[in-house]
């Protein structure tokens, strides 16, 4: 029982990352009808926002400490971050420590701007082009973004720790009457889950309860009619693209402490997020979220030792296996609409 | 435009570029069929092929390997301060290239994929006339390229490859490995673990689900069980895993009090980060502090795990903080050229290049069979690992192994590991027909043509 | 000729000439010159050009004609390679049984996967094929290691049975004794041209496959497939069931992929699991779109383009750059090299990404359209004879194919 509970938590946590990425992907697809292969790259850019903020905050000046030597035997240079010299070591240290949460503030405008530029500069010209062309151009863009990041940050993962306050893990087991240490879960991963839930709720509320959202939903259903009504739907769609980019970026920022970001993390998520979107049903926002959580949970359960000992290697293929089964049972995924991306 | 740069060579190349097809005197021709051996250098230069990962997750290690290769070529051609050439026990190298021929090199991208690595190595052999291929940062690639070099008839000097198979089941007469292997890691680590953590421990293994992971896990399980440890479980994790939480979460509740992470590279960074996030290291199980072990450390990759490596034991082939003359000379010339200390990958490929050049010098030929003969059973010193021997039977180097620990108070961004013990060579040696290495066949050396 | 229209016959002849003289065409620069770096006429790369050409031609029969975008075609390539290497291990190094088996097994797998996947269309079909291929890759890399030798890749060991191997046969892949690695180098002054047995075998097979593809494109069956792409609903209403046709196309293109895999293993007897990864499947999609989907020659061009970048650009390092720009003054030289550096060597992916974007933005019909524009512009220029100031971009483009 405790094991199942633990894997359920894991599944929810994994699922939140899948759901956030799939949500953004579906927003773009649903509004603009564009298959965006660069979405993984947006997620990666978000994570590198966190890295960049951390680097900016720890920009240092060097002083030579005659007591210490570096690896070549020369007097060592000691680095002191400017923030520490301005605000004092304690306050400065705390600011550096909190760089990931601070990065959220920076990531939102940056990612929205990147989304705008991408849509206006490139994607706009591909609305009427075949999906194959969209895939090729956005894939090319993804490679370019990835390589540029690699030029600046190298190929190795870069540690981006969460604030000290969130280190360690929470013992659920004690709350529920299990032995101590039976069900423990890291604080930051719980934060991630909560954060994902808030973002998802916010996106849904925005679409559901604002006039803007209403127009966008109408545009998703029938773009031409909305256009004929004299509403500038293109402008709204551009904004939606920016929001989708921001959702992917936020997912990335918050993910940075969970796994140290590297330049190809976007590609690692790309295929998976497409599977999630399609299993959820093309163009369905609730479907994307549902599929994200479902696949996350199934993936976690399949990596349990009991199950692995019955079916070896099941954890490697579970997502694809489930995708095949669901698509065979439900032709348009969990909640897909008829006629979307079927030709 | 300063005239000093306007060399004849440069002028010719310029006109060749401008003219597109202007003829140039041939320096040498690539595929020399009918000659004594594959790609026999006939001109005044000899070409080596440096095949390293330049894209994909190991690109930074590949870049460090390339730096070391360039340094080695510089030293071989008489440039720089000579580095480890001065401390090397064999004095055959004179700093005038190899056998009087200037050393040139070509580079390629393995992408850490067997196919791409073989394609790249083939182009070096077929197009550029490389007489030796070296490099790589994973065992799958090393074994694939080693097989290719055997077929093509050139020497392969393996880079970073740690699987037992490279000089075990998949050993080849044309292939040589300076790096240590999974068995040696385990044999070196076990006594240290015993001294620190006692004999009454239960280990939980997370193992990367591919050949290297299996051989590493097999080795460390055998070594720890021999000293009385128990093995609670061995869980195979898919290579593509990025989030290890689902595998780490059940560990604490399994009754194990040590977690062994048989992971390398990105897998290692992520699994270690997950384990630390779950707070395993603050926990107590069976009345003992919970411990984590990473059998194969790479300083370069460990940086990605940040503070999480502190206090965690592992093994490594070489570390820049060693204080023997060879290591000091290498760190000095590498550090002065590039501004940071070399990684173990850089060290092993530098040694391999020097060993190859020295063997060619001693054999008096670039013929793979001559070089193989010169390397087999070759004993040397002064390359940073103490006394070392290239065993003739399996082309594996036998030398001391470093047991390291994540440093608690690093003084710089490079100062991540501290050497706990230098396990002497005798302790990590094994018989050629040891069960973990059985089944291979060295075959006979292939000179190509 | 050969039952082809005049236009197709001339296309086939052009392709035949290009492939037969490839060792000359791809090695235009003299050995040892600065531009020799761009020579692609060495056996391995030439083999890859034609093998991936076969792969892409086959993929185009499915994608170009029916519009079904398979994202898992690399699985068939991998299965073909594994079958061929197993034949080498069991029977011996003659490549015929390996190639035959690779076509058969990949055809069977294509039948199975196609039968299931073709129940859906559009992106749902793409994801189904992707899922099958990714499953094959994951299993081949780990659980199926006894069959596939996992990470290392399946290879032939000295201890393998090789029942039909005899002492007088070469110990590398061969066709009745003719070694695939065998190369004859023709030295003409500073030039050197390599004629490789394996390459010519692959090239002849590719020509055969190209001919077959033309026949399929022009057959009633091909017409039916195009009808599926144009309007499947209408086809349904006319009482035709498109499923058997698409399945046939899927199996044929799977067999093409298997053949390519078998040939790859025959040229280089090692089959790695990465051949089945989604990136490999993506690569053939990119080759086809880049060259021009639905055209006959496009996929071959796209295959050549991508493989050329992968193998040539990734090898340009700083030393090479310094040689090229040695004529510039020091400061200029370093400046130019700093500019170029990110795009070559380890940055070859960046160049490739930029070129993908450029091609798809400016040439919606792929490289084939680029070729058409150039010929059109040349013709117009010839027609105007002397009038200047024409503008190539205003050329009307005929739709690809």
Brief descriptors of the model:
heterotrimer; B: about 450 residues; alpha/beta; Rossmann fold; 7-stranded mixed beta sheet; 5-stranded parallel beta sheet; 13 helices; about 20% strand; disordered N terminus; C: about 400 residues; mainly alpha; two-stranded antiparallel sheet; 6 strands; about 65% helix; disordered C terminus
How many domains make up the coordinates of chain A?
A: 1
Number of helices of chain A: 14
Q: Based on DSSP secondary structure assignment, what is the total number of beta strands of chain B? A: 17
CATH architecture designation of the largest domain in chain B: 3-Layer(aba) Sandwich
The helix content of chain B, as a percent range, equals: 25-40%
Q: Helix/strand/pairing class of chain A, anyone?
A: mainly alpha
Might you state the CATH topology name of the largest domain in chain B? Rossmann fold
Structural class of chain B: alpha/beta
Q: Characterize the biggest β-sheet of chain A.
A: 2 strands, antiparallel
* Alpha carbon gyration radius of chain B: 23 Å
Our measurement of the CA-to-CA distance between the termini of chain A, rounded to an integer number of angstroms, reads 45 Å
Q: What is the number of helices of chain B?
A: 13
Mean pLDDT of chain A comes to 87
Q: What global shape of chain B is seen?
A: globular
Number of strands of chain A: 4
For the terminal residues of chain B, how far apart are their CA atoms?
A: 47 Å
Can you characterise this structure?
The complex is a heterotrimer of chains A (343), B (449) and C (401). Helices cover 69% and strands 7% of the residues of chain A. With 343 residues, chain A is mainly alpha-helical. Chain A has a two-stranded antiparallel sheet. Chain A has a two-stranded antiparallel ribbon with strand order 3-4. Chain A is globular and about 75 Å long. The model of chain A has no long low-confidence stretch (mean pLDDT 87). Chain B has 2 domains: 45-180 and 321-394, Response regulator (Rossmann fold, 3-Layer(aba) Sandwich), CATH 3.40.50; 183-316, Response regulator (Rossmann fold, 3-Layer(aba) Sandwich), CATH 3.40.50.2300. Chain B has helices at residues 8-19, 59-76, 114-126, 139-152, 182-197, 211-226, 245-248, 265-277, 299-305, 325-338, 344-363, 368-375, 425-428; strands at 45-52, 102-109, 132-135, 155-158, 175-177, 202-208, 230-237, 258-262, 284-285, 288-289, 291-296, 313-316, 379-380, 388-390, 397-398, 401-406, 417-423. In chain B, helix 2 packs parallel to helix 11 (344-363), helix 3 packs parallel to helix 4 and helix 8 packs parallel to helix 9 (299-305). Chain B has 449 residues and is of the alpha/beta class. Chain B contains 13 helices and 17 strands. In chain C, 63% of the residues lie in helices and 5% in strands. Chain C has helices at 6-20, 22-25, 43-66, 74-90, 95-117, 122-141, 145-148, 197-218, 220-230, 232-237, 243-267, 278-291, 298-312, 318-324, 330-340, 348-362, 367-384, and strands spanning 154-155, 174-175, 178-179, 183-188, 191-196, 270-271. In chain C, strand 4 (183-188) and strand 5 (191-196) form a beta hairpin. Residues 386-401 of chain C have low confidence and may be disordered. The chains are: A mainly alpha (343), B alpha/beta (449), C mainly alpha (401). Chains B and C meet through helix 1, helix 2, strand 2, helix 3 and helix 4 of B and helix 3, strand 4 and helix 14 of C.
């Amino acid at each position: 029982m405790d094991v199942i509970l633990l894997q359920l938590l894991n599944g929810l946590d994994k699922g939140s990352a899948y759901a956030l990425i799939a949500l953004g992907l579906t927003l773009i697809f649903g509004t603009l009808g564009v298959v965006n292969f660069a979405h993984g790259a947006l997620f990666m850019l978000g994570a590198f926002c966190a890295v960049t903020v951390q680097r900016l905050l720890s920009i240092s000046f060097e002083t030579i400490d005659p007591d210490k030597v570096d690896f070549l035997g020369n007097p060592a240079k000691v680095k002191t971050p400017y923030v520490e010299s301005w605000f004092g070591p304690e306050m400065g240290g705390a600011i550096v420590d909190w760089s990931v949460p601070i990065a959220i503030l920076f990531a939102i405008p940056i990612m929205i701007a990147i989304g705008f530029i991408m849509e206006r500069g490139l994607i706009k010209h591909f609305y009427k082009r075949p999906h194959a062309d969209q895939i090729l151009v956005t894939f090319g863009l993804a490679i370019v973004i990835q390589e540029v990041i690699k030029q600046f940050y190298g190929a190795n993962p870069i540690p981006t720790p969460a604030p000290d306050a969130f280190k360690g893990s929470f013992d659920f087991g004690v709350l529920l009457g299990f032995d101590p240490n039976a069900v423990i879960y890291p604080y930051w991963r719980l934060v991630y889950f909560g954060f994902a839930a808030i973002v998802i709720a916010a996106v849904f509320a925005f679409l559901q309860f604002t006039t803007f959202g209403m127009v966008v939903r109408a545009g998703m259903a029938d773009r031409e009619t909305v256009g004929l009504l004299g509403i500038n739907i293109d402008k709204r769609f551009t904004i939606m693209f920016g929001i989708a980019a921001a959702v992917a970026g936020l997912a990335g920022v918050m993910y940075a402490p969970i796994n140290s970001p590297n330049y190809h993390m976007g590609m690692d998520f790309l295929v998976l997020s497409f599977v999630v979107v399609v299993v959820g049903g093309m163009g369905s926002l609730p479907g994307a979220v549902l599929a994200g959580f479902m696949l996350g949970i199934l993936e976690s359960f399949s990596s349990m030792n009991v199950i692995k000992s019955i079916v070896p290697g099941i954890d490697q293929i579970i997502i694809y296996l489930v995708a095949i089964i669901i698509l065979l049972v439900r032709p348009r995924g969990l909640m897909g609409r008829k006629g979307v991306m079927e030709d | 435009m300063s005239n000093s740069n306007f060399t004849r060579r440069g002028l010719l190349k310029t006109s060749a570029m401008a003219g597109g097809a202007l003829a140039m005197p041939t320096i040498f021709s690539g595929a020399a069929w009918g000659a004594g051996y594959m790609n026999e250098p006939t001109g005044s230069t000899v070409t080596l092929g440096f095949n390293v990962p330049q894209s994909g997750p190991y690109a930074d290690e590949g870049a460090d390997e390339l730096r070391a290769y360039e340094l080695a070529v510089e030293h071989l051609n008489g440039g720089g301060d000579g580095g480890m050439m001065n401390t090397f026990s064999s004095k055959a190298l004179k700093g005038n290239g190899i056998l009087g021929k200037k050393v040139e090199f070509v580079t390629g991208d393995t992408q850490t994929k067997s196919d791409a690595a073989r394609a790249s190595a083939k182009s070096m052999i077929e197009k550029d006339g490389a007489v030796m291929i070296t490099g790589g940062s994973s065992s799958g690639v090393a074994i694939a390229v080693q097989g290719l070099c055997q077929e093509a008839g050139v020497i392969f000097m393996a880079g970073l490859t740690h699987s037992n198979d490279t000089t075990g089941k998949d050993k080849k007469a044309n292939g040589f490995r300076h790096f240590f292997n999974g068995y040696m890691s385990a044999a070196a680590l076990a006594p240290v673990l015993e001294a620190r953590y006692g004999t009454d421990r239960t280990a939980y293994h997370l193992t990367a689900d591919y050949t290297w992971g299996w051989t590493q896990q097999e080795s460390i399980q055998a070594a720890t069980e021999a000293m009385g440890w128990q093995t609670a479980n061995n869980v195979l994790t898919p290579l593509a895993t990025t989030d290890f939480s689902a595998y780490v979460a059940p560990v604490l509740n399994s009754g194990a009090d040590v977690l062994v992470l048989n992971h390398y590279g990105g897998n290692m960074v992520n699994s270690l980060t997950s384990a630390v996030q779950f707070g395993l290291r603050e926990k107590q199980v069976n009345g003992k502090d919970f411990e984590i072990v990473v059998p194969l450390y790479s300083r370069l990759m460990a940086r990605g795990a940040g503070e999480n490596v502190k206090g965690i034991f592992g093994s490594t082939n070489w570390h820049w903080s060693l204080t023997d003359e060879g290591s000091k000379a290498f760190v000095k010339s590498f550090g002065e050229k590039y501004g940071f200390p070399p990684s173990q990958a850089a060290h092993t490929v530098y040694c391999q290049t020097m060993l190859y050049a020295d063997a060619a010098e001693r054999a008096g030929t670039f013929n793979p069979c001559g070089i193989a003969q010169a390397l087999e059973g070759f004993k040397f010193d002064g390359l940073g690992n103490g006394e070392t021997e290239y065993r003739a039977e399996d082309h594996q180097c036998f030398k001391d192994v470093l047991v390291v620990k994540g440093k608690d108070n690093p003084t710089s961004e490079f100062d991540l590991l501290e050497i706990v013990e230098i396990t002497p060579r005798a302790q990590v040696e094994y018989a050629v027909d040891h069960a973990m290495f059985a089944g291979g066949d060295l075959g006979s050396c292939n000179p190509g043509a | 000729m050969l039952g082809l229209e005049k236009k197709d016959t001339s296309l086939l002849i052009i392709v035949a000439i290009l492939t037969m003289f490839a060792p000359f065409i791809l090695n235009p620069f003299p050995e040892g010159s600065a531009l020799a770096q761009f020579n692609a006429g060495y056996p391995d790369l030439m083999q890859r050009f034609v093998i991936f050409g076969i792969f892409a031609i086959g993929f185009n029969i499915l994608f170009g004609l029916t519009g079904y975008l398979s994202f898992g075609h690399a699985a068939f390539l991998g299965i073909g390679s594994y079958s061929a290497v197993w034949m080498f291990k069991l029977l011996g190094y003659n490549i015929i049984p390996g190639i035959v088996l690779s076509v058969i097994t990949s055809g069977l797998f294509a039948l199975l996967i196609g039968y299931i996947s073709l129940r859906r269309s559009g992106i749902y079909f793409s994801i189904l094929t992707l899922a099958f291929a990714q499953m094959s890759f994951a299993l081949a890399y780990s659980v199926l290691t006894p069959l596939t030798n996992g990470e290392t890749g399946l290879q032939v060991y000295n201890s393998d049975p090789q029942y039909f191997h005899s002492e007088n046969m070469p110990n590398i892949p061969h066709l009745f004794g003719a070694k695939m690695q065998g190369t004859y180098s023709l030295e003409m002054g500073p030039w050197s041209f390599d004629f490789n047995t394996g390459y010519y075998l692959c090239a002849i097979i590719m020509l055969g496959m190209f001919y077959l593809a033309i026949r399929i494109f022009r057959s009633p069956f091909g017409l039916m497939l195009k009808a599926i792409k144009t309007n499947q609903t209408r086809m349904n209403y006319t009482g035709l069931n498109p499923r058997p046709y698409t399945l046939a196309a899927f199996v044929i293109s799977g067999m093409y992929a298997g053949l390519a895999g078998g040939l790859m293993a025959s040229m280089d007897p090692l089959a790695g699991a990465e051949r089945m990864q989604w990136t490999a499947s993506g690569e053939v999609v990119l080759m086809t779109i880049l060259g021009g989907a639905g055209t006959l020659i496009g996929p071959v061009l796209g295959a050549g383009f991508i493989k050329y970048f992968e193998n040539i650009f990734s090898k340009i390092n700083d030393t090479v750059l310094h040689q090229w720009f040695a004529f510039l003054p020091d400061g200029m030289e370093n400046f130019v090299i700093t500019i170029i550096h990110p795009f070559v060597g380890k940055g070859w992916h960046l160049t490739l990404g930029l070129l993908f974007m450029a091609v798809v933005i400016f040439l919606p019909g792929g490289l084939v359209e680029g070729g058409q524009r150039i010929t059109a512009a040349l013709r117009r220029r010839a027609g105007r004879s002397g009038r200047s100031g024409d503008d190539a971009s205003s050329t009307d483009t005929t739709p690809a194919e």
